[in-house]
Amino acid sequence: MKSRVNNLSLEKTDCDLCGSGNYKNLYSVPDLRFKNFKHEYSVVQCINCGHRYLSPRPSKDSMHLIYHDNYYKNRNEVDLKQKNRFILQADYLPKIANGKILDIGCAGGGFLKFLKNKGWKCYGVDFIKTKYKEKGINIKYGYLPERSFPKLFFNVITAWGVMEHVHEPSVYFEIINKILDNKGLFIFLIPNGDSLWSRWAFKEDIPRHIHFFRPKIIKEYARQYGFKVHKIYYTNKLYSRPASGKGLFKRRFLRSLDIPWVKIINNSFDLSMLKKIQYYFMKIFDALLIHPKLEELFHLCGNMVVILKKDIK
């Protein structure tokens, strides 16, 4: 992983939503998930529209360098955790006899195989070829804009944890509107950019996440690209490990002391007696004040499932 990241190409970018190049820096973090501290990546917020994104970000040609070999491990239907997630995801779909569905970011097609067994006509697209692929599932590899589908073809299009990874969400919204039928739904899971997990606990999967959507920003994307927001669900239930902000008090306290990320993640920092006492109270605050169910209740949990309808005028 380290040798691959040495070849990473970074690029500055303007706001995908409004095109403005004016932004303010919010915070910077390295790749905390895979503990690579070579680069720190800056999360910025557009001054014009408020959209948050990564800049500089990995270029599209070098994105494959930041996906660990095990990134798609155990994402087939045989894995019990994945099958439970497929059941929960399917609950968001409408009941359509012989419906045609496209799953963007389908990996090896595990969710599509699950749906095929329930009568759906299944199609998939993913920009990474995985080591496994379900048999009998029609999957095109590459980015969605590079793959063609008929206009008004699909009843439902899904994207589970995808839109935050793509360089130009605007292009995806435009294409999805064209290939979705006039009564179709676009159903997608994204991190909640207003959540404790995302905004305050530094837990976004940076640099693989390059856009940080908030409800008001999703509504603006929908308006610009011919959709209406039908429903937004705030949920921590789709994954076995909830996207909770637990730990934010500890992390933010340590960062306020200018302790490097490598020491925070490896728990190798030294504190004075006074700071140790303060750190102890931060741990108490994390335990008492932050809970996944409360985060869901107050729309502060890390994930949202968004359902968009085409806006037919």
Structural notes for this entry:
- Helices cover 27% and strands 25% of the residues.
- By secondary structure, it is an alpha/beta fold.
- Helix 2 (80-90) packs across helix 3 and helix 7 (248-256) packs antiparallel against helix 9 (273-289).
Order of helices and strands: HEEEEEHEHEEEHEHEHEHHHHE
Largest sheet: 7 strands, mixed
According to CATH, the homologous superfamily of the largest domain is Vaccinia Virus protein VP39
Instruction: Look up the CATH topology of the largest domain.
Output: Rossmann fold
Instruction: Indicate the percent of residues in helices.
Output: 25-40%
H/I helix tally = 10
Q: Name the average pLDDT.
A: 92
The low-confidence runs, each spanning 5 or more residues with pLDDT under 50, are none
Radius of gyration: 20 Å
Oligomer: single chain
Question: What keywords describe this structure?
Answer:
13 strands; 10 helices; 3 domains; single chain; N-terminal domain of TfIIb; 313 residues; four-stranded antiparallel beta sheet; Rossmann fold; alpha/beta; 27% helix; seven-stranded mixed beta sheet
